[in-house]
Amino acid sequence: MIPARQESMPDADTDVGIPSFDGEHYQSQIQPAPTLSVRSDWSAQVLGKKQTPCQDNLQRKPHMCNHHNHAAACSAEQTQDYRLPTEVVPSRYKLRLTPGLKVTDDDSEEIYKFTGHQKVNVDILESTDRIVVNAKNLDIHEAYVLSKGSKRRFNGTVVLDDKNELAIVTFDRKLAAGKWTFCCRFTGTHNTKLKGFYLSVWEDNLGGKHQIFTTQFESTDARQAFPCWDEPAFKAEFDVQLVVPQKLVALSNGRDVKTESLGNGWKIVTYQRTPKMSTYLVAFCVGEFESSEPVFTNGKELRIWSIPGKNHLKSFAIKCAKFGVEFYEDFFGRPYFGGDKIDMIAIPDFASGAMENTGLITYRDTALLVDEDKASYGEKARVAEVVLHELDHQWNGNEVTMDWWDGLGLNESFATIMAYVAMNSMFPEWHIYNEFGLDRAQAFALDSLKTTHPVFAPINHPSEIAQRFDAITYEKGGSLLFQCIQFIGYETFRHGLRIYMNRHALANTRVTDLWDALEEACKLEGKNIPVRSFMDAWMNTAGHPIVSVEEISGKPGAIRLSQSQFLFLGDDAATAPLWPVPVHIRYKSANGTIKEDKFLFCDLEHEVDLGENFDWLVVNASGPGFYRVAYGASLLSKLTGNISETLEVIERFNLVNDSWAAVRARLMSATDYLDLVKTFSNENDPNVWAIIGSSLRALYGLTEGAARKVFKEAIIRQLVGPVFNQLGWQPQPGESVHTLQLRGQLANLLGTIGSDEAVREKARDLFEQWKADRASVDPNVVPALIAILAHTGNRTRFD
Fold this sequence. Notes:
By secondary structure, the chain is α+β, with helices and mostly antiparallel strands. The protein is 33% helix and 26% strand.
């Protein structure tokens, strides 16, 4: 699943700005750089603790754990009432549902209900007199079991535990170990809360209202549609049938293999059996849908569905989907596991950005539908990212699945970075890894708070799961995996993922299974890299370090690195962790040669000799490290003497972002920060301007009166104006997508907090022109026009 994204300027106190892309550094990031030095004793020193086995509640499988409090958490987990017992395990559901039944409740309100009946093949592993399943907001009218051999029926008594969302079915006799069929009949209500089996309403051009009955089950809402074993490790196959009005389209995970008329305007649709998968990936969509033309690739049929009238908005997403299937099948070295079709559908009311249901991926409209010819670069980039994110899940998450929600990073961290890996291959001209710097900055900002959490942390109740769908799990986890790619090498990383996928196909895993596979790939390629210790140290530890870099007095050419935890509101905590920091430096030696070095920095301090009279030094070269850098005054002066020559795009972004974070943490003065920003007067990259603009907005908000007037004139207009004037309002032939985007960013700054009257006047003219003819104004500029006019207008214009 990918969260919904705010498609606007960020809040002023964040580290990021409008998403934008540029740069040419990715190949240097993923290819082997200088030889990495690894101290043999570093893992014991850094972790300072021993890995201890704890018991997995579901599979009774020991795993290694580094969580500081996981021993207690694991012990508690085994006794918590919300977890299902493991003596009864499902293998196949046979599920029939009839959605969209309109009824009138006691208050004369029209509501929609669904009815269902299911037979679940189960294995009873230990003799028991009860079967416990998850159920929420369901009325279970009857429940019974059939023995496989005699087909004798044993009726059960159902008791609902609403607090723990359980249905406990008890029998008046013990059910022997063996194969049984668990059957039940139930009724539920389609809610309007965008989860479970919910009702979505859309309105046509004539004001007519139409219903869609659709699903969102991640993380624990399949239990609102049918009684089930609603935990990731209880994987099973699904045979689904939907009974729906003849005129409606009904979609599910598998292909429609048979449609039968039932008379009276109803039909029953039978779907191909799904592969073994978790309940949160089951999906149904019923409504008045229109399909794109199918696209075929590697034996799979791809389609995009939507409400009628939107087929002209599907061409870009279907191209991304075709590329994604081909790319991932090659990358993972194995075919898509879910069958011979992948449907993608745009839902008008959808809480997230998208959801990776096997074979039926659901999307928010704006994350899938876009006019390929008229859309801005940012709109297309968002669609590409979301489509490729969800397609990666078909391998990472759907085929190989975390065994409990504390392993959510196995799904979301990987899909975050793999979407960028695929985008980099599909759109090399976008230089997409500079855009990933913005994602990393979002994670930095959240991870700089005392309330942050590790990527992998215990989840002690299902109510905590939703909190994990955040920038730590997605962007920080993805950033740490990108750091791992840099650490072990791109091809080694792919080799390890192939080992992992082949070993655990259709199964459930712990995160240590992944680290073991990556470490095995390293060994097979002759690299002695302790991946598990390295990744555990980062993934299981909250926060991140700041690496301070100073020249050593009395030692010409020597520098000292020191690390400490970075916090916006810091403590002098003696127990602050040490990280194994993968340092990549690039510097210009006295004779003018550009040199590089890589090493793990695991202590509080570390000295490096660069040779006397070196010119300048970049720490975190090419920018993949998940740590901040603070340069001493002399080093910073050398580095900023000619920024465009010494620093790559992502390095310039990191320098500004780290410096602005230092201002917020009171490690750098705002005056020194503005002096640094003034050295970017010739900057032409929208990523770098995103963080500059965000910081200027925050500082603007702290001024008033005469000080604000000076800030507008001496800072904003003098810094932004010359760059914008070079670009002008009209795109020129051959401009890159990055230049197109930068024009709108700069106009926005000048026309809002810059109070540039000429820009505001032009914005008014262009907006009127755009209202008359949408094609007359560059779509990358339109958001700036709206922002400027809303900022300066009255209530009528704002509305």
